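CORE FACILITY INTAKE
Project code: CF-77B
Contact: R.S. (postdoc)
Sample description: multi-component assembly, three entities in total
Requested service: structural model of the whole complex
Turnaround: standard
Below are the sequence entries exactly as provided by the requester. Do not edit them.
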Amino acid sequence: MRPERLVVDPTACTAHGMCAELFPEWIQLDDWGYPMIDSGDVPPDLRDHAERAVKMCPALALKLRRGS
Amino acid sequence: MRHRLLAGLPSPHPIGLATHLELHGPSPLLGRGGGDALIAELEAAGLRGCGGAGFPAAAKWRAVAGRRRPVIVVNAAEGEPMSAKDRVLMTQVPHLVLDGALLAAQALGARDCVIAAPAGVHAPIRSALRERRAAARPAVRIKVEASPHGYVGGEESALLSHLEGRAPLPRLKPPFPAERGLNGRPTLVQNAETLAHVALIARHGAAWFRDGGSGGIPGTALVSISGAVRAPGVYEIPAGTPLPDVLDIAGGRLQQVRALLVGGYFGGWVGGAGEGLSFDDASLQSAGVSAGAGVLVALGAADCPVAETAALTAWLADESAGQCGPCVYGLGALADLLGRIAGGRTERGDGARLTRWTEMVRGRGACRHPDGVARMISTAGRVFATELSEHARRGPCAACGRARLLLTPRAREAATA
Amino acid sequence: MALWYLTRATGGVALVLLTITLVLGIVDVARLSSQRTPRFVVDAVHRTASLFVVLLVAIHVLTAVLDSFAPIRLADAIVPFGGTYRPVWVGLGALSFDLLLALAVTSLLRARIGVRAWRTVHWAAYACWPFAFMHALGTGSDIKPGWMLWLSLACAAAVALAVLARAAASYSAGVAVTGVTAVLAIAGLALALWIPAGPLANGWAKKSGTPSSLLGGKR
């Protein structure tokens, strides 16, 4: 499986903050409630968490993107 | 050094087609494989985009090459208020830019080209197009469109959105315009100056181009110089010129220079008149700035750097397209904070907050607007450390009451070199 | 006989779950979460409860159709106001069912259709609940004994509170709260006048449109 990175579309994100609750290992909220995401490849053992965060995003702003 | 892009200037009229051909000779026709050869030549020349981001031109062209039904977009939006070079090019030497655009169209197999420029410069572009149509049947459909207002309107995805009839808002990339640009077609968006350079590189080759400059920025560059200099305006300088010498080219300093804003509003501050630095990538990078859109603003010792930085941040925060939370709230918070510092109304922890928020907004938008503001603020923090803490402690200084140097586009008034 | 009981039971439970779904949805969108109940929990319960509502309503509809007592066809559960058994009140249930299906389908396909289309459809949630509520009061055979009436009124109170809380959390809280309070007051007053005169009054079965052939029988 090719490595994937988590990216947020900042134009779609409305700071619900659910991703940071679901995947705190990778996502933290800034001082205004918007997610700051680790830019590295998501390790395979954390993939489930990444996928759940993507699926649960109320704004559908979070995506798993292949390659760089 | 002899002018290249601005050859034939100053002139009372825009350079017409006949004079243009006299000055530069005919634009070469690209035969089979000529497109790839030209791209290789751009790469050898080390040409970078002159709109601000400084992305290598060859890489941009390669990303479009081989795709179906591409479009060329000439970006002369020039949303940067301190920059006037694209306006100078479009009004004084439009044929050079048109040559570059048509070469791009030939090299990439494009049949459509859009020139996006402020409505005020449409007349000279249109008359240049008329001259060309009278001389030969055009192979490329060229449309002239009004570019959007606003600081981020010149960002390529925002520009394309505007040309599609929607609001000029940047979008997240990828997909890049090369993959999905104007109306979904592969699009090369290139700054007007970059295309003018292309016109000359196609004629004279990479070696000739590099010969004009030194170091990381090959060739010559157009700089818009303003602030505490005698003759603000747009000048063509050899890349690698020491920054203090650049000020001399603009007539010399009006007063002692406290700092230079390099690149544009999104650029960065360097101390003094940039002693020890020169106008090339490596040197500017060592000071944490970049050539950007070729803007140089000289801040005189009589101006207040803290008030200027605070006012500029407030203006830039206001220019946010308003789409991305970190940009809207982050830049807003930074503007408030700098306003408090400039007014001496600081609270505990404001110093740490300034650093924290400046880092926090970097890379957090769909476009690079927050990154540019962060760079401007962080270089200000370095260059104006003393003044910042003075203001935080004692409030406004004597110079704070002066009219702001930045935000008044003085460069636009004096146009040509 | 067993089917008819199942219809009534699933109807009642579905109303409660629909209320929970709506209230949690409102809590979610008004961002009324806390450390102890993080948003993803609220959101997950909202999604799960909504799927149970669909399941329960499906059973509610199927049993009502299969049961031989009331002449309700499958079409009556989907096309509103076309039936012979209490057409208005069953019709409101059908409307609510249609909206529920639209909400469920668009939610399952949310990633495909995009957030904007999904959100537009999701506003229908605010119509889905009142239709279901009126359907419960008007059709329900269990209003007179009281327990179903009190359950329904408790659900209404929960929804009213949630809507008020959302209005208070909105950008223009002043206008929103005033507007919502006015709407809720009118709705409450209308219910207070209508319930005693309607479902609780004698002869409601006939008035609500029960076919006369069924009225003789005791059920």
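Facility notes:
- DSSP finds two helices and four strands in chain A.
- Chain A has one domain: 4-66.
Invoice: internal transfer
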